[in-house]
Design a protein that fits this description.
Length: 523
Amino acid sequence: MKQGLSLRVSQHLALTPQLQQSIRLLQLSTLELSQEIEQMLDENPFLDVADDSAVREEFGLAQADTPVSTEAQESPDSAEVEFVPNGAAGSAEPTAAASPNEAETSEATSEPKLEESWDGDGSVDTAPDDGEWGGEAAPRKNNLDDGDADASDLARDHETLQAHLHRQALGLRLSDLDRAALHFLIESLNDDGYLEDALADLAEALAGSRAEHLDDVEELEQRFAMALQLLHNMEPLGVGARNLAECLSLQLQESRDGPEARAALAICKQPLELLARRDVRRLAYLCRCTEAVVKSAIGLIGRLDPKPGRRFVNVERNVVVPDVLVVKSGRGFKVTLNREVMPRLRVHDIYASALKQNKGSGGPALTQRLQEARWFIKNIQQRFDTILRVSTAIVERQKNFFTHGELAMRPLVLREIADELGLHESTISRVTTAKYMSTPFGTFELKYFFGSALGTETGGNASSTAVRALIKQFVASESLAKPLSDNQISEMLKEQGIECARRTVAKYREALRIAPANLRKTL
């Protein structure tokens, strides 16, 4: 075997640490971004939150790595900049008023471009983007007309199911053991108010699984059974049930007078599949009552709450904070970033200045930390710039939606936005995931504005989103005695010039969480 040396030239794609961080920040939601910022603030001493409205230096993506001259540092009032997202242009540019002498000084002191590494170029000078980022954030406003509290404040003041039940338990005269058993059951309820675990399992888990604790398990199970009876008599009715049938029965026991209530209790003892299918004839036979009474009983059951604990669920989890705001401006629409979700970050001036004055004494580790802080601020700015550009392009493509609603939605795919902005489809997919836009018709995820195309008789295309909205409109105006079947909806769409098969209608109906025709029928 003969050995030899050879040279080969090849190209390959390498993701730098900055690019990896930029991609990761781009796909994060608002909540995840806040957690990432909190972690970065804990780890990097050079990163700081701007709480005051200090005068800031000129910054921006174009000037990210340009050092500041001595004259500019001594007279910060010479150039004043504010980051204002431009909705029309879809980008953020700084506006500054600087003298020609300062421009010449900036050009004369410019340094080579930083290498693609966290190590930086060894410079510890304060960069132009070391100042506050995020602009002058407006005061946090609420969503209520009276101005008393916002949704988050209401969520924090909202009483939980366990607290509501514990407050009722204070009015009961119980022994210490019975009160402890009731407290344990209340804490074992899920968010819907159901007791998922069996009493024997709860008693065994509390007393231990060893054989000598068998007597303790039996005693605990008896106390849990008595505590469960007390729990069933508490508000809201149906709390502490082990299954849906028991939950409905507990609510019906308060109105057991009358043939409808007695029939409803009898129906709850039958297989619930019969109730779901509304098999009136079979239920009338099993409950030994007339079909008219069964129909009235089914109507009574339909007015019950199958999840009595969901009204106490913390509403803060359902609050969606939009990343982009779209408001009508003249004949068009203005697209802006939501300043409430934009972090206000800056490099810590004191630490950066100390490192600059003692250059070389801090070692490469501190210099690397300073460079990480600068790149983190820059990547967050680039994240919001990209979100604004994509949102602006979506609004331009979906102008009819913002004017007439979802029925006017046009087909749109990720590639169209990617080609227009010169980005990759994967980037558009990351931007539109878990990012929300506030519109005159409500708040929607950015992915909502993308939809496949369905053919029409005229040779054009109709958006699948518009077709789903049309199906929802058909169902809302249907006769309750004779609801529309999927085949009938398909024929109605064809009359509108939209080619949509019955199976496609069924798929869209299930996506809209609309029940089949036999379950929508009113008895």
